[in-house]
Give the backbone structure.
Amino acid sequence: MPVTLIIGAQWGDEGKGRVADLLGADADVVARYAGGDNAGHTIAVGDEVFKLHLVPSGILHESASCVLGNGMVINPVNLLAEMDQLCSRGVDLSPERFLISSRAHIITPAHVALDRASERALGDEAIGTTLRGIGPSYLDKTGRRGIRAGLMQDAETFADAVHDAIERANEALINAGESPLDARATALKWIDAAMRLAPYIQDTSQYINRRLRDGARVVCEGAQGTMLDLDHGDYPFVTSSSPVAGGALVGLGFGPLHVDRIVGVTKCFSTRVGSGPLLTELDGALGQRLRGSGENFWDEFGTTTGRSRRCGWMDAVILRHAAQVSGFTELFLTKLDILSGIETLKIAGAWELDGVQHELPPANQQDLKRAKPVYESMPGWKADLSGMRHQDDLPQAARDYVRRIGELCDTAVRTVGVGPEREQQITLDDAL
Ligand code: IMP
């Protein structure tokens, strides 16, 4: 397996971090290719829980080196805080095993302020972003005025660039009725960050290609999910990068023929944070039950923002779209244990729009607003699945539910998660 891609099939938060942690055990390189610290990956290892926003989950396996790819946007101050936290817990983050692409783009405090200003200006129409400056940073990248991470190797020039970017953003902030930032003070603070991060900067595309030539196994850890993809998600309620499979090639810089496994990760129900359509949303007690109380780290509250997630039934229309856009070779279905005790389960197999059934989502918001899910119902199960480790242990109703999800999107479910711990998963075979 030269390259495995781990792709979110829904709206993010599918459990990609735990899958990356699992597959990272056999990997030589684990790489992030898109997004920034809007992501939040939670991994449970024994009694310890790690919450990662920028550093790939593979960092918890000593044998893997980890890469932040060119497709990412990186807030250096937040990255250092995360690195320091991991180091204090004994994780090795030496430049020999942790690399940052010189072509990744930098998030400045001005991007964060502009993100906030833009959301405020949108009022009721706000996207519900994570307020991490992701959109404004990608906007500067595509506007060809961004700052690349490679500039941190020359701290003075980097500080000048940060200073100028903040001065420029200040005009926009003042026009939007926001307070301007202190460009000089920020630039000075960021010199420190640049000096500390400089040893980690490399041409990571060259690095990955060299490792692939030497026979390394690379796992690419997606962030966010297909429905938040700038092109394939439900625009404009999306992030500003490409979480789908194609994004990994662009965001790391290697050729498609290296990829031989594309794992679509999906929860066995739907969740979404932020605004935008969620056709199968459950507002009442059932939605609350799926969300959990917030007492456990695996309950449906954002790792990055703490916001409660909207919850709903499984939507095969979304999953089919995700499988098609990224070419999933298999599915990893997470949180099956959460459905225990629900008498009847529903899956949206199609959407009805103006009397016509659709198997794939329409592209525009006006159509999405009129679409209604067409459900099929399946019997639920009572048994607690969290201690089960073999597919034969699973109740027949759980096996039927899993098999039906695979059938509906024409992709076999190869693994199910039955709890947050590393070992709480079941490998499935064709005889399911
Ligand atoms: P942004 O990426 O902060 O610009 O936010 C854009 C949209 O993507 C918002 O709806 C966010 O809630 C959502 N989003 C961004 N990152 C994540 C994530 O890691 N999990 C779930 N939703 C996310």
Remarks:
- The two ends are 25 Å apart (CA to CA).
- The longest strand covers residues 344-353.
